[in-house]
Design a protein that fits this description.
heterodimer; A: mainly alpha; Formate dehydrogenase/DMSO reductase fold; 2% strand; globular; B: mainly alpha; two-stranded antiparallel ribbon; two-stranded antiparallel sheet; 71% helix; disordered C terminus; transmembrane helix (chain A)
Chain lengths: 332, 447
Amino acid sequence: MLSPEMLSYIYASLMALSILVYAILDGYDLGVGILLPIKHDEHANTMIASIGPFWDANETWLVLAVGLALIAFPAAHSIILQALYLPVTIMLIGLILRGVAFDFRAKAKTKRKQLWDTIFKAGSIISAFMQGFMLGLYVMSFEITVVSFTFAMLSGAGVVAAYTLIGSAWLILKTEGELQLKAIQWCKTAGRITFLGVIAVSIINPLINNDVYTRWFESNLFTLLLCVPLLCLSLFFIQDKTLKRLVLTPTKRAWQPFIISACIFGLCFFGLTYSFYPFVVPGQLTIFEAVAAPESLNFLLYGVAIVVPTIITYTIFSYRVFWGKVQPLSYY
Amino acid sequence: MLDTLLLSRIQFATNISFHILFPTITIALGWFLVFFKIRYDLTQHPVWLRAYRFWVKIFALTFALGVVSGITMSFQFGTNWPGFMEKVGNIAGPLLGYEVLTAFFMEATFLGIMLFGMKRVSPKVHTLSTIVVAVGTTISAFWILSLNSWMQTPAGFELRDGIVYPTDWFAVIFNPSFPYRFFHMLLASGLTASFLIAGVSSYRLLKKDDKHAPQVTLKVALTVAAILAPLQVFVGDLHGLNTLEHQPQKVAAMEGAWETEKGLPLVLFAIPNEHTRSNDFAIEIPKAASLILTHDLEGEIKGLNEFQGEHPPVKPVFFGFRIMVGIGMLMIIVAYFSRFTLWRNKKLNSWQLKLLVYMSFSGWIATLAGWYVTEIGRQPYLVSGILTVEEAVTLVPSSNVAISLAAYLLTYLVLLVVYIKTLFYTADKAVQVEEYDYSTMPEVSNA
């Protein structure tokens, strides 16, 4: 049997991994939803087709992340979700609407298709914005003040921009021709907005949050830590260069923007977790205080050890099956 | 203004009632698809592929509704019922965790290949993906029914400082009511899917669809229904006996039995009255309830008065049980009658087809009624003998719960209507489509 301390580390890492994988994977399909044009039918179909086989599994990472919080850190799960009651509800309804719109648009009457596309787009925007909004409130320790509310709104807009960035990068990878060129433009714009968002949050967060300030600026590792924002910033510049090149040679290394975006997500996520670790509820509860009973977590760990590698294997298999530029979506 | 407790209960009931509709179909429909696909692989007869292609669309739609309505559930434990996880999280957590790990990812990933990958993988891998999806839905049912059954008949745990800790995982998972509830639910799913397939196939035939596929699916569905319906009576009876042993107050409410009696009559109809603690307008068969429950005419059954203050509200359990059994009986009659007619006359006439169309969603009503019996029958407890519903509820203000409840209700109502309309619209489209062009059949590739 592993000790509670060891289990805290393991489950906190797993939870962090699920959140990051969720943000990248569901991030790109939410991003595609945010970008969905309402009128241009042909492009809309291709864009939807590019996420068709994946969105369902992508969303499962959210269930895993929330599930791990529920199982491993139940006290934190209930504090956080009760504090975020209404934003959670709005996000869930957004996710519900977009999930079903995906299916209804293909099966409903032609005249309704545009309506379902609108719902898909709206649902994607609402879900993405609410996720960022909740992240903002989390960072502000769930205070209900004008400052924290404004910060949460900013954070919401930031996540919408970030998902648009990775969504358009996905489209650059999966599409060709006119749509791919469009995606390059979207990616450029989204990249610049995300860049501003990341800078704004990185400056505001330590200024209004004393603990975060101490963690970053009074750390012995300050010089090492400085690499994180520097690396992140340089990735934005590399992204911009790559996009300029892609306009000229769109078939060469079309995967680059997606990988760069995913790295940006990873670095931002590291910055966030570093700011709060070992707290799972900022300022209130650490992972060591919130951890569930060792007999339960040990029991689940057998499953985790066997199943998680299996999940990763067949997820890679699924991406390989649908490798290459997107084909029209058909059920056979 | 209603209080947070009542609103949270209504909200959870709304969510879970809406959610269960879709897995109830997909658990069994997945296996129907496996059957269609394997028949096609073995015979290469295009009718099986057509049956598969039509029903895989319905499966995709139903599955999507199940997924999105299921995600809300994992949040509501935290938002509305924090006391549940605080008290029994050490049991509930791992069971839910295993469901996500062993079922959800598998279903979702292979669903992509099953739906859109026919041209991209070999026929074998495609059939295998279909099987994996069906296995996934069944595994998912396994874990969630294990947890639900544990809440009904907890086992394999100890209480330390008021918190539940596991002592024997095997006893937790295979708790006393689990095997019965699991098979009862699998059969319910089988019947729900059979009647849905029979209903939609009949609808297509009524619309003068002269293709072979709806006739074939009608026949398969009625055959399965005729096999599963009597089996369900048998498993349901075993489940009832198990409940009598572990939750006698639930059985007393189901039977409308107030006093402990030897030779308890079977109440066919009555209006249970909790004020006078007796039944109004009762129609009874003498001693029949004792015979069914104890297999002895003079068997003793404990009445509700033995559990004053500890028993569930009687009316919903009493009526829910009668609705479930009533529809179950109707299903047996219709399944046998239709299958027999089909065998004798090779086809059904229009009123017989219409009857099946009306019965398309009969499985939903019976399943919901059955779940209300077992869930309301557990009240006032959330986990029998350990945690009451009231102890588990959130501190969130009632106005917030009222807002979220209204939003969910509106969303679900719209989606339910759209789902049913889309189902029949898909059938309409299938009627209009000419026979599929064989040249577009999937090429065999080893990519």
